[in-house]
Amino acid sequence: MSSSRNPHAEELAGVLYERFEAFHAHFIAVTARAEGRFLARDWHGHRSDAAERLNLHTDAVLDTVEACRSRLPETGARQTWIDAQRRYVELVTDRGDMELAETFYNSVTRRLFGVVGLDRELEFIWLGPTALPAVDVTGSDYYSARANDSTEGAVAAVLGHSPLGPHFADLDRDARLVAERIDGYLDGVWRDLDAIDVLGAVFYRQKGAYLVGRLRWLNRVSPCILPVVHDDTGVHVDAALLTEPAASRLFSYARSYIHVLSERPAAVVAFLKSMLPVKPVAELYTSLGYSQHGKTNLFRALYRHMEHSNTRFEHSRGAPGTVMAVFALPSFDVVFKVIKDRFPPSKRTTPEDVKRRYRLVFGYDRVGRLVDAQEFENLTFARDRFDDDLVDELQQECSRTVTVTDTEVVLGHVYTERRVYPLDLYLREMAPDRALAAAVDYGNAIKDLAAANIFPGDLFCKNFGVTRLGSVVFYDYDELALLSEVNFRALPAARDDADEMLDQPWFSVGADDVFPEEFSTYLHSPPMVGEVFAEHHPEIATLDFWQSMKQRNRAGDIPDFFPYPASVRLHQDRPAAT
Description:
Helix content: 40-55%
Largest sheet: 6 strands, antiparallel
Number of helices: 19
Number of domains: 4
Shape: globular
Distance between the termini: 62 Å
């Protein structure tokens, strides 16, 4: 039966389309506030907008499920939905964000029909390659500044053309400083510079704005991202990020989502992919705030990879989890984490507590130190793609979440995270200079998290990892807490020698009590860590440090967390954006 002869299907398609349009209009409206927040230096307002935007998709999907459920006929519901899909395709085909509309439909479908695995009749299923739009710098999405006369002239044109152009305190000076960086970078690499291509929309996150572009000569491209800050002296270009690693950090899976306006998100992703070829499409969509479509692309990439490989899921490298079973395909850079049925007595937490902490991380400012986690339900894989030992663990320890049949493994609830190198292994296996750098950044990560009002709970290096670009990140959230939830205390002095010899504390210890002085005792494995912390991060083992961090957060302080080091700033003498 065609949808034109099925009034229920027509109505359902209309409801789906109207609800998607309403969701996306709300998403765009919240995103559009970013420019005003930046110009007003309203950092708390931007943080509030980010929190509001995160839940829009889920809320819209749940509302749409209820609206559609009440309209589905009691008989023939499945065929009616198939007919509705055909009509929905007609409605969304000409949209510049059609891929987002399809993902919205799939999210509604899976909840409405309780889909387990894939349903090729009900869902939009395409596991083959996906073509991104061609990057057309002559279109309205982009601006191209020719560098015929000088690099400085091209940079000045880019700055002047941007929406922030009228607000620069000293555009000419910024253009000169950026041009000097570009010319210095290209010297000996390219013989010339044809143009600088820049996306028309400004990218915003926390206290930063970013003009996202690329340098172009013949068929070669290189990133050219210009971070912009608004401090006491006005609006300025703060740095020039000209390498793939430097640019990639802006779109890191360990940072919060970006606010950028675009009628064609796929075109933005295509532009970014042209200069960040290693960055997965799923991560690019996610970094722009389209986390649900990022999940769609991750899912497609995973299944496509499995169709063209024969590797099996196996336990991940690193210390085994006591709260989660953690596994991965050796050939795919993602780990899977399933909550276990029971935890050891030492873990004073519950499965619901663990889920709550993962939700906290999803909605929090990850400051480059917390790995983003994607939550999936009802994924199915062939049983023969799992190692026998892993299947045994999933059956014995995760039976509430995982179903194993003769042919399939069904993951009822699972988190995925980008795979990183476990820090404890990294410190033992890497060359001394790289291990030393990671040990230093380990302390930096703890301090950054504290500044962001996060206490990891378990500070052992086995719970941290090292990214492809060498940054240390935290990924074990079962004991994570806000600083405001932790009672940092000084260790009481022993009353006598007998107290010193006791296996248990001679004083009362509350569930939320933490004694920073103890950190210097157990943060020394391998020995390099103790030495590095004593030299570079002694304050971590002091009560004053943690109490001062709590006080700053209580006062509403929002620290600077820019995705580049202070050493690359153009204006070293200027204060941070407060």
